[in-house]
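Readers of this paper often ask what the protein records in our data store actually look like. Below, we set out a record of this kind in full and without editing:
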Amino acid sequence: AGRINELIAGPKGREEARKKRRALDADRLAYLFDFGGKAKVKTFELGTFRRFTPVTKSDTFGKEKGFGFEPREAMKDGYRKWIPDYAECDDCRLSKDIAFRFRLEPGRYRLTASGSSLSEDPVKLRVLDGDQEVGSVSFERGDFPPSDALVECEGGELVLKPDAYVDLRWLRLVELPAEK
C-alpha cells in the first residue's frame, strides 16, 4: 500500500517518502566489515553513506577493539588486482579453526556477506550467538552474488565460523525495523 500511495502522490510525494525512508534508515544500526586491506574500503548507503571497517589478517579479537579473528590471526590477506570493485577485490582467508568475532547491540539483523569457497564444495559460514547457531550463509567456489540470512542476537557478540577454507571479502549486518 505504501508504494501505491507514493505513485499516486506524484513526484513531490515520492521525494517526501524517500526523505522519510532515509531519515528512518539513518537511525538503523549497521555493522560493516571489509576484509583484506585498508587501501580500498567499501561504503554503503543506509540513510547516509557509511564506511566499512577495514579488517586485515592480523586483526585479532580484543575486548577494547570489539572485533577480530580468533583464536589467532587469519591465514592471509588476498588481493585480486584484476577485480575493479573495491569490495570484491580483497579478502582474508580463514580455515575451519579460525573465526571472526564482533560485538553488537542485541537485536534482529539481516546479515549479508561475500566470499568464496576454496574447494569444489560450498562452504557454510555458521553464525553463533554464544553456543547457539542463529543463522548461516554459504559460498560457492568463484565469484557469486552475496549470501544473506536473518539473525537474532541476544548476547551482544556474534561469531562467524566457517566449516572449511573460505576467502571472506565483506560482511554487513543491518538492523531490521521493529515489527509492528
Observations:
- The chain has a mean pLDDT of 84.
- The chain is about 15% helix and 45% strand.
- The longest strand covers residues 107-117.
